[in-house]
Amino acid sequence: MSDNSTASEPEHGSALHGLHVLSMVVYSLAFLLGTAGNGLVIWITGFKMKKTVNTVWFLNLAIADFVFTAFLPFTITTNALRFRWVFGGFVCKLNTGVLVTTMYGSVFLLAAISLDRCVSVVAAVWAHNFRTVRKAYLACFLLWTAALLMSSPYFAFRDAVEYHNVTYCAFRRHNYSPEALSSTLKTLTLVRFLFAFVFPFLVIVSCYALIAQRYRATQRQRSYKPLRIVVAVVLTFFVCWLPFHLLQLVELRAHVTDDSFLWMLVDFGMPIATGLAFFNSCMNPILYVCMCQDFREKFRKSFLLVIESAFVEEGTLYTLSASRRSTVQMESLVNGNKQDSTAG
């Protein structure tokens, strides 16, 4: 996913080769776990659970992660071929564009989830009256539209290009001066760093600071519990993506200074950072399960029950399958309202 990489692969000996082999293993695990885990979440939240605002948010987040990991075989194959691209120009555009779109979609959704939680706590009465499933779907549509617009340059400028008689998936160099290409890459990297990391992070931190302040003011210590999964998902996203974004900035600096140490840092660090970013997309289903209350007992009963208990709105009694003929009190992700279950 590095936009500024040159077409040639630097030779750093067996250590770098081993690192790329390791990265392919990580990408493969992310593909297997991500498609399977997020596929299950999509099936459960999309077809098995009653629609609420919470399930709409996390259904869309699972779709973003599923699509992201579903495109990983192109990256795995390219790494195995020492970065040669064999899938043609259209797939090059599509692969890069989809990966960037789902990255933007994920972080925009996390920011929206945090804003939703903040409004539900700070303006509970307003949220009870106006927070509906239909509006959640509309918000998701707008967020996906914004993500697509932010990623449009990657659809436009990425292509299969030849360098030293080898084809790579990279930014087109013909019709652009080196200065213009360098300026474009710098702009795209900085925009992505700001809008896919810094600004969403500031929004999310501000939201949870307000939530924590309100909880302290009302002495609702127990209300922290429903936020655990949301906070864990947010923290996991930013921890996994931070090294990638930082190394992209380092790479920009390396292009300017041509510093050998910076290039070595990029060459060795980028496979690890990219693998960590990819692996983030298979972490959310694991978090949904492992952070659910009474995890071991519920997991022995049913994986479906575990996922349902992770997404159900607070204070809602969710009916189990007919064979069990019982109801249980579910802990929700957030301080949701019963309005979600009937609105829309």
From TrEMBL:
Q: Which InterPro entries does the protein's record reference?
A: Formyl_rcpt-rel (IPR000826), GPCR_Rhodpsn (IPR000276), GPCR_Rhodpsn_7TM (IPR017452)
**Residues making up the signal peptide according to the UniProt record:** none
- What are the UniProt keywords, alphabetically? Chemotaxis, Disulfide bond, G-protein coupled receptor, Membrane, Receptor, Transducer, Transmembrane, Transmembrane helix
Q: Which residues form a coiled coil?
A: none
Q: Gene3D superfamilies attached here?
A: Rhodopsin 7-helix transmembrane proteins
Q: What family does the Swiss-Prot or TrEMBL record give for this protein?
A: Belongs to the G-protein coupled receptor 1 family.
Protein's name in the database: Chemokine-like receptor 1
- Where does this protein come from, organism-wise? Acipenser oxyrinchus oxyrinchus
Gene symbol of the encoding locus: CMLKR1
